[in-house]
Amino acid sequence: MRLVFLGPPGVGKGTQARKLAGARKLAHVATGDMLREAIKSMSGAGLKAQALMEKGELVPDHIVIEIVEERFSKGDMKAGFILDGFPRTIPQAEALAAILAKQRMALGRVVYFDAPDSVLVTRISGRRTCKKCQANFHVAFVQPRRPGECDHCGGELFQRRDDAEDAVRERLRVYKEQTRDLVGYYTERKLLVRIAANQAPDHVFAELMRAVG
Ligand code: AMP
Question: Which atom, in ligand 1's list, is nearest to the CA of 30?
Answer without folding.
Answer: 3
